[in-house]
Amino acid sequence: MPVTILGIESSCDETSAAITQDNKVLSNIIANQTVHQNYGGVVPELASRAHQKNIVPVVQQAIDKANIGKKDIDAIAYTRGPGLLGSLLVGGSFAKSLSIGLNIPLIEVHHMQAHILSHFIHDGSNQKCDFPFLGVNISGGHTQIIRCNDYFDMDIIGETIDDSIGEAFDKCGKILGLSYPAGPSIDKMSKKGNHKMFTFTIPKVEKLNFSFSGLKTNFKRFVEKQEKQEPGFVQREKYNLCASLQYTISEILYQKVEKAIKITDVKDIVYGGGVSANSMIRERFKSNMKNVNHYFPRLEYTTDNAAMIAIVGYLKYKAKNFGMLNAVSDAKYKM
After folding, report:
1. 21-47 per-position pLDDT tens digit
2. CA atoms of 139 and 272, how far apart (whole Å)
């Protein structure tokens, strides 16, 4: 009999629920919170309130679309962390209550593991990747290089010491007057620009760690200086600015991933997180890194979604790795 998992994701500003049977997705519903665009970033209190409003209808939609009944669910997987604590509590509390009501197991999922393991969703198009591989998590909250030895044997070998790669896109986008989230807009606008027009800071950080705060400061000072000297500079050069910024961010990532490959001699690279949807990163890494296999998720699985939570739930269910009702949601949940 196939294993049916209900996945629930509420780590930040998307309320999502998904149904999987074994490693196949039957439904994946996501409710976005547009209210944060007015503030240039996610407001935690508003996010948790929106989750409370969305959680019941989103779960019901996922069940209806999958064409199953609640009694068909074998276990509930939910994001325990990391993320915004208020948001995590909404999803975790709902998952625990439903598991009690249905008398089925509860499964705790680490959000960043789920981004990497989303590759194991079977959708008929993804290539098979064997262990070990390097996981590259690039999102609004994290930038990590991870050596993945097995599904749940992962070692972080590099991470950001300040801002994440997604923050770099969003904060620099705000300087250009772009709305939140700015990453997709920068990606789109960069296609009309020349990435060689402007040069920005590439920080020197030890080992495989990252830093993006210096780039943000350098970009801000450059834009302010040029705008003061040449009023209207940003509007005239917005495409070139976006292209040059995106190239610099991708170069920072490229150098570290290339170094990780040399250090570990692992040549299968699995990407996860919202920034893995970036077109320049996808095209550049695939074209320029020779003798390396790159595995990018489908676009619908790059941003926060419950399908990736459910697939981890399935893998843990097979391993009989169940959670406890007294487990506490953890904003800084360690991998």
Report:
1. 999 999 999 997 666 666 667 788 888
2. 8
